[in-house]
């Protein structure tokens, strides 16, 4: 009886700490250098349509183009229709990729990567080198608040990297504090608190014996 009542508070503290440690341990995400290179590729190959800040094809972004290009749809500036091989029809609507509420349809980094690799750039799908697709994905992960962990982006392990940390509303209610602590504290501090809690509980247990 006595031994049960002694350590339970410390044990719970310790288990909670370890619970933080497990899911907060670094996921296999990407390297900073990759994201940096991805930002350059994005500027060259994606930003014409998706905007310099990933804001999408907004009027504000179109206004920065040369005047003769601002009304591409009418001016046929990408060649006479039907378009030549290297020309393309400018889409009317291009979704934003960076900012609140963007990329909602992709559950994991792997889904995002697979889509971009298969479908983008819109007018020439699959035309970029493989490492450019990885670098762009790394760049978008970075802009969505997913930290780099020093490991190169890998499409396989990317399945374990959720793009939106809290998926559903129910999860949100119970997960907010958890996610807040996870993101606010480096994993080794949260884990350290857990280990310290366990040790403390064990020391107290021994003292009472
Ligand atoms: C010629 C214009 C154009 C270019 C260049 C382009 N895209 Fe797109 N992109 C589009 C359009 C149009 C859509 C919407 C397609 C759809 O919904 O079927 C889209 C959709 C997307 C989506 C899905 C967004 C969502 O939330 O549904 C992603 C991600 C994306 N593009 C990434 C890229 C990347 C990365 C590049 C550069 C390698 C790129 N795009 C280059 C026009 C473009």
TrEMBL record:
InterPro entries: Cyt_c-like_dom, Cyt_c-like_dom_sf. Pfam families: Cytochrome_CBB3. The keyword Membrane applies. It comes from the Bacteria. Residues 33-144 form the Cytochrome c domain. GO terms for molecular function: electron transfer activity; heme binding; metal ion binding. This is Cytochrome c domain-containing protein. It comes from Candidatus Thermoflexus japonica.
């Amino acid at each position: 009886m006595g031994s049960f009542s002694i350590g339970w508070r410390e044990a719970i503290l310790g288990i909670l700490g370890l619970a933080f440690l497990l899911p907060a341990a670094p996921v296999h995400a990407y390297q900073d250098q990759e994201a940096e290179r991805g930002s350059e590729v994005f500027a060259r190959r994606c930003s014409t349509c998706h905007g310099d800040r990933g804001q999408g094809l907004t009027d504000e972004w179109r206004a920065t183009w040369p005047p003769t290009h601002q009304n591409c749809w009418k001016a046929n500036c990408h060649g006479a229709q039907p378009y030549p091989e290297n020309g393309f029809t400018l889409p009317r609507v291009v979704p934003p990729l960076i900012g609140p509420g963007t990329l909602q349809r992709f559950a994991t980094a792997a889904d995002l990567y697979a889509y971009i690799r298969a479908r983008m750039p819109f007018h020439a799908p699959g035309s970029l080198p493989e490492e450019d697709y990885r670098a762009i994905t790394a760049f978008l992960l970075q802009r969505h608040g997913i930290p780099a962990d020093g490991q190169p982006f890998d499409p396989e392990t990317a399945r374990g990297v959720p793009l939106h940390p809290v998926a559903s509303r129910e999860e949100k209610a119970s997960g907010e504090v958890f996610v807040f602590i996870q993101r606010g504290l480096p994993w080794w501090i949260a884990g350290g608190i857990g280990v310290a809690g366990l040790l403390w509980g064990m020391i107290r247990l021994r003292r009472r014996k």
